[in-house]
Amino acid sequence: MAEASLQHRRDLALGSGAELFYDAPLEIVRGEGVYLYDRDGRCYVDMYNNVPCVGHANPAVVQAMAEQQATINVHSRYLHEGIVTFAERLAGLHHDGIESVVFSCSGTEANEVAIQMARIVTGHRGLICTDAAYHGNSELVDSLTCVGRAARETSEVRGFPFPECYRPLEEGLSEEELCEAYLARVAAAIESLKTEGAGFAALVMCPIFANEGLPDIPSGFMSRVTDLVHREGGLVIADEVQSGYARTGLWWGYENTGFRPDIIVTGKPMGNGLPLAATAASRNFVDGFRAATDYFNTFSSSPLQAAVGMAVLDEIERLDLLKNVAEVGGRLTGELEARVDLHDAIGDVRSCGLFIGIEMIKHGDNKEPDATLASDLSNRLKDKGFLVSYAGKFNNVLKIRPPLVFSHENADEFLGAFDECMREISA
Ligand SMILES: Cc1ncc(COP(=O)(O)O)c(C=O)c1O
Predict the structure, then answer these.
(1) Which CATH class is domain 18-47+320-426?
(2) What are 295-310's pLDDT values in tens digits?
C-alpha cells in the first residue's frame, strides 16, 4: 500500500494525470550503469532511458559535476575556458559546415532556437514536419506534434506523411516510386505554405524518425528531401535529441541516414542527466541569431554544463561506445529479426544501433497495429526485470533504447525474457 499512497500523494502534489509507466508503477531509488533498483532492492535492466547514455551514476560524470560545482558555476556572461572548449569540441564532431553552438537546457528550447534561427536566416516563417512527430512541448515546438491529426495544422505549419516502406503511402510502388511519392507530399506541403503566405523557413525532422516508430525509410529519401528543401529556399533542421550522441553506432543520426543538415539540435544524452542541450550551425547562422535575438538562458552555457558535457564525451570515447553500440545493437537486432518468422504478432524489427523497434501486430491480421499487445509486453517484461516502452504512430512499436553501455550479456538475458513473454502470450 506504500506505493499506492505515494502515487496518491503524487497526484495531489503534481496534479493527477502526470504520466507513469507500467500498470503497477515503479518506485526507482538508485541506478548504476544499465541497472535500476526499486525501493525493495529489485534490480531492473534499463532498456529505455537514453539520457544516462554513459550509464546511470557514471562515476566520471559525477566527479566532473561535483568538482565543477565546488569550484565555480555561474551564468554565461563571463569568459570561461571550459565553455568555449566544449562548444569547439561539440561543433568539431559535426560535418564541416557546423561551426558554432547555442547552448540551452532542453530539447524543446534547442528546437525553439533552431526554428527562430531558420526564420531569421530565411526571412520566412513556415515549417514542415512529419505527421507523427514530437519535437518538444513549448507552444511553438508543440505546434509540430502530430500535425495533420487532431486538427493541428496551423497557418505556419504543414505536416507530411513520414516516409516508410512497411506501411507505404501507396501499395504496389517500387522503392524509387515510393520515395518520389513521399517527396511529392513534402513539395505539396511547402507549396501550400508559400501560397498561403507564411513562406518556407525549414523542415524539422528526426534523422531516424524515432518518435514515428523508427521506420524503414525509402532509399535516397533523406538526401533528396534535403535537396528539395534547399531548392525551395528552406533549411533542414535535424533534431538529434534521440538519434544523436552515438545512439546509432555513429555520432549522429544524419550520418546514418545520409544527409547534411543546416542546423542540428541535440539534448537528452548530452549531460547524462544534467539539463543540457545545443543548437549547432554555421557561424553565419549563429551570428545572425545572436544579432537578432540577444538570447540569454540563465542555466545554460554554464561552467557546470561544460564540465559535465565534456565528461560525457570523454566517457563515450574512453568506453569505445560507438563500437559497443554497433556490435551489441547489431547482434540484438539480428536475434530479434530471427523471431519475426516465429511469431505472427511480430510484424517487423527495425533498428539503428542501440535503438530498436519491434512492430507488434494483430494475429492473422495483415499489419494491423496492436498497441494493447505492445503495452502488455512492456508490463510483462518489466515483471521479468527488463524496462522497455512503446512508441510510433500507433503506439504499437516496442521501443528498446538502453544506455549505450548495454552489453551482450544484457542482450542475451533480455532475449530469454522476451522469448518467455512471447510463449506466455501465445499460450
Ligand atoms: C525527437 C525529440 N525532440 C525533442 C524532444 C524534447 O526534448 P525535451 O523533453 O528535453 O524538451 C524530445 C523529447 O522526447 C524528442 O524525442
Answers:
(1) alpha beta
(2) 999 999 999 999 999 9
